[in-house]
Amino acid sequence: MMRYKVIINPVAGRGIAKRAIPKVQQTLKNYGLNFDAVLTERPWHAAELAMEAANAGYDIVVAMGGDGTVNEVLNGLMEARTKNNRSPALGVLCAGGGNDFAYGIGIPRDLKSGCALLAHGQKRTIDIGKITSDSFPRPRYFGNGIGIGFDAVVNFEALKMKKLHGFLSYAAAAFKVLFLYHQAPTVRIEYNGKIIIQPSLMISVMNGQRMGGGFKMAPNAKPDDGQLDLCIAGSANRARVLSLIFHFLRGTQIGKKPIKTDLAPYIKVTAEKDALPAQVDGEAFSMENHLLDIKLLPGELEVIC
Question: What is the value of pTM for the model shown?
Answer without folding.
Answer: 0.94
